[in-house]
Amino acid sequence: MRTAPASAQAWLDEERVTWNIGAGWPDPVEYKTALGQAHDILIHLHDVEATTYLGSP
Fold first, then answer.
1. The CA-based dihedral angle spanning residues 43, 49, 53, 57, taken in that order and rounded to the nearest 10 degrees
2. How far apart (Å, rounded) are the C-alpha atoms in residues 31 and 1?
3. Is 1 within 8 Å of 41 (Cβ atoms)?
4. Helices (H), the chain
5. Residues 6+ apart with CB under 8 A from 15
6. Distances from the Cα of 57 to the Cαs of 4, 9, 40, in angstroms?
7. pLDDT band (50, 70, 90) for residue 3
8. Is the C-alpha dihedral spanning 4, 5, 6, 10 positive or negative?
9. 8 A C-beta contact, residue 25 and residue 12
10. Using an 8 Å Cβ cutoff, are 34 and 16 in contact?
11. Helix, strand, or coil here: 19?
12. Which long-range contacts (CB under 8 A, 24 or more apart) does 1-5 make?
């Protein structure tokens, strides 16, 4: 992300609301972070799907 164009750098440096999806959802806390300052890499997935429940272990 350090080599991103200036327009992308400006977008990455702006604080935005993010979500923490971990062991519990919904998480009632609203997090704000600038992605470019908080992460070394950003991966964008065009298509995502819900997981399939496999049952108890």
1. -20
2. 21
3. yes
4. 6-12, 35-38
5. 32, 33, 34
6. 44, 44, 35
7. confident
8. negative
9. no
10. yes
11. coil
12. 1/35, 1/36, 1/39, 1/40, 1/41, 1/42, 4/36
* Residue whose entry in the numeric block shows the structure tokens 């992460």: 39
DSSP code, position 42: -
Q: Report the distance separating Cα 3 and Cα 30, nearest Å.
A: 29
pTM (2 d.p.): 0.57
Number of H helices, E strands in the chain: 2, 2
pLDDT in tens, 4-45: 899 999 999 999 998 777 666 777 788 899 988 888 888 889
36, 18 contact by CB (below 8 A): no
